[in-house]
């Protein structure tokens, strides 16, 4: 199973943030060798990061794909470009953001101690996603899409990770769309 996080807070070529996420899922579903297995509900969430990133729409899908993680990442980045603009600012507004959360439980780029520095995160494909366990806007939809999933490094379910962070304000779920 492969898990992908979807997020948007700007309208673009495919419409509103919600319409953009729906279109992205449809595009992935019709990609040869790719099958969408399950999808979470859509959630409005608070943005995370410096400045005021605004309200996002987020979801998580589980897929099966007949390609490697690097090829999949290239396909996702191509979809992002087709969807519309992205802020030049890190964690800024974006029309579409697609992240590989987990690729068949593969561990790639995680140091032995389980901590990552900013350089590793920016320049290398790290699996599972290096920040997923710190993001409420990922954990809540992840509980929908893959309730039995366990973090390959931290060995906790999305629900267990969420329960440790549920009182955080940043990235919190505002409501279901």
Overall outline: globular
Assign the CATH class: Alpha Beta
**What is the name of the CATH topology?**
Alpha-Beta Plaits
First-last Cα distance: 25 Å
Q: Approximately what portion of the residues adopt beta-strand conformation?
A: 15-25%
Secondary-structure class: alpha+beta
Number of domains: 1
Q: What percent of the residues sit in helical stretches (DSSP H or I)?
A: 25-40%
What would CATH call the homologous superfamily? 7,8-Dihydro-6-hydroxymethylpterin-pyrophosphokinase HPPK
Number of helices: 5
Tell me the number of strands: 6
* SSE arrangement, N to C: EHEEEHEHHHE
What is the quaternary state of this protein? single chain
Question: How would you characterize the largest beta sheet?
Answer: 6 strands, antiparallel
Mean pLDDT: 90
Regions with little confidence, pLDDT below 50 for 5+ residues: none
CATH architecture group name: 2-Layer Sandwich
Instruction: Calculate Rg over CA atoms.
Output: 15 Å
Task: Characterize the structure shown.
- It is built from 5 helices and 6 strands; from the N terminus they run E-H-E-E-E-H-E-H-H-H-E.
- Strand 3 and strand 4 (about 55-65) form a beta hairpin.
- The relative contact order is 0.22.
- It has helices at about 15-30, 70-85, 120-125, 135-145, 160-165; strands spanning about 1-10, 35-40, 45, 55-65, 95-105, 175.
- Helix 4 (about 135-145) packs antiparallel against helix 5 (about 160-165).
- The chain is of the alpha+beta class.
- Strands 1, 2, 3, 4, 5 and 6 form a 6-stranded antiparallel beta sheet that branches.
- The chain has a single domain (about 1-175), classed as 7,8-Dihydro-6-hydroxymethylpterin-pyrophosphokinase HPPK (Alpha-Beta Plaits, 2-Layer Sandwich).
